[in-house]
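User: Quick sanity check before I run a bigger batch. Here is a single chain. Can you write out its predicted 3D structure?
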Amino acid sequence: MPAPHPYPYHQAPPHTPPVSHEAVLALTFVLQRQHPTILNCTVVGADGCTPYFHIMTTAASADASPECTVFSANSGCTVATVDWGTGTSGRAGAGPPQVEVHKVLPRQPLAAWLGVSYDASYRIMHAPEHRYVWVPQKHSICMYAWNDTAHQHVPRLLARIEQVDEKTTLEIAVDAMHPGLLEMVVVAATVFQSGCSID
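Assistant: Done. Predicted structure follows.
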């Protein structure tokens, strides 16, 4: 049975509004010079230098498919992993991509966590006790809380991914964050901008 359209898909404004008029956490994905890809980068704050996360990806060789992407907090502890299913040989076909956000999201298929709608117009991100939708809008990918029952008001934009001149930025409303959501949003942004297959 096809998944119902979430309310944001029908009512999201045609332009890209600000994430919030209140406190917003703004992050930038700074690529490494030796590996200029979002799969190997540092996520820094609005000041351009305070690191929040480090993203590192292993591959069998420089031109091979990614094997595993590890997300670490600035303290050095691992907070999330994406296993791309390429196996130790770097060949695709070893299994579907898997994701895990430690202490928040158990290991599961990436395609289940970021489920695509039947018409491929948005993705549903499943979080403990919450669901969100990621909707492409012009040059952004915008995240709203899933609400398939409300029909009167334009939903509040909770997070936004933008890529301009090969620079990826992420904004998320601070008051909307519950434990683990920041990590999940960073992982989702990385996956969306990686060019790798989710499904």
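The mean pLDDT is 84.

User: Great, the batch can go ahead then.
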